[in-house]
Amino acid sequence: MKIINDIEKRISLLDWGILIVIIIMLTIVYLPSSIWREEVKFRTNSRQQMTDIAEAEEFYKELIGSYTTNGEELFSLVEAAMDSLIADSLFVGEQKIYLNDKVYEVNMSKGFHTRVDTTFSFPQELKRTFLDTIYAVGMINEEEKSVDTIFVNAREIENVKKDELFSTIFSSDTTRYSEYYTDYLRDKYHLTPDRLLCPLIGEPYLLEIDSSDSENTIFSVKSPVPEDYTEPRYGIFKFEAGWHGEIIDGRKSWAEDN
Fold first, then answer.
1. Which of these, 111, 123, 124, 122, lies nearest to 59 by C-alpha position?
2. In a domain, 207, yes or no
């Protein structure tokens, strides 16, 4: 009986040993991959925010004629200009925008708000369904001394009935049709100040203007994260940020990686 108990005890210990080994192996496989995904996530989000800043700068330059290193002013003016044109479609040409106790003289182009929307919003493909009534209408044909049949929809029927050649409505039929369209406002996000800060370390992006060539001013935005930046993970692993990159004169440093 004692021998049997010893065997069962050894088997139990062996089972626990196998389980522990499996857990260790899963941990070794899973944790590094989860850290890698985290690294990619921060790098991707950071690069998207730098892209937003660089594109907003181009809109700002279009409005003012120059770049700025004041990120909050940058975002505020681009948003205000977009909202102004949405509120008043005639708000084009040379205009003034009053913002934060300051007057900005801007040059607004037609469709500015649409270009801003399509740049900073995620398009969604949507479907809408319409009901329409089609009428079979009799119209007098004076030359043939007869009545011809034409088909018109509900939008046109009242105008047709006012025509002096209108005779009668023979029949009507309601139809349903669908239309696919792209909506940029449903998933719209705004240029908020938090997008000026690196999502990894919370420090502002580095905005620089190179005016050494008076005919070709260059704007650049760079990540504040050092290339050798690391953080400990789970005691034995390490999060490595890598190089988040920069955008200089519209050229993305990471474009070469693709």
1. 111
2. yes
Q: Are 50 and 221 in contact (CB under 8 A)?
A: yes
Domain containing residue 220? 33-123+185-257
Q: Is the pLDDT of residue 28 over 80?
A: no
Residues 39-59: what's their mean pLDDT?
95
Indicate the number of domains in the chain: 2
Secondary structure of residue 250 in the 3-state scheme: coil
Residue 9's pLDDT band (cuts 50, 70, 90): low
Nearest to 86 by CA among 63, 57, 64, 112: 112
Say if residue 191 is in the same domain as residue 105: yes
User: What confidence score (pLDDT) does residue 179 get?
Assistant: 73
244 neighbors 223 (Cβ within 8 angstroms): yes
Last residue of a domain, one of 183, 200, 225: 183
Whether 132 shows a pLDDT value over 70: the answer reads yes
Tell me the HSE value of 212 on the side-chain side, using a 13 A CA sphere.
2
